[in-house]
Specification:
This protein is mainly β. About 10% of the residues lie in helices and about 40% in strands. It is built from 1 helix and 5 strands, in the order ββαβββ. The strands form 2 sheets. Strands 3-4-5 form a 3-stranded antiparallel β-sheet, with helices on one face. It has a two-stranded antiparallel ribbon with strand order 1-2.
Length: about 70
Amino acid sequence: LSIDGATIIDYDGTILSVGAIIKIEAGSSGGGRLAAAKTLSNYGISIKISNDGTMQGFKMDKNKLRARTLFVL
C-alpha cells in the first residue's frame, strides 16, 4: 500500500479502511507516521512502515499509558 494514511484491518483480516487520516496530539515528536502508529496502538497492534523499508510495531502499555515498541525490522 503506497498511499498516505492508515490501512485499518480487523482481527479476522477484513479491511475496514484505506487511507484513513488519524487525529494525533499536537507537539508529538518523530513525525506524523510515528505519531499515528502510536495513537492507533490504543485500539490494537499498529505497524508503521517507512519509505526506507523500516517497519515498527506498537502496542499500548496499559500500565504506563503509552505506546510500547514491539519490534523494529
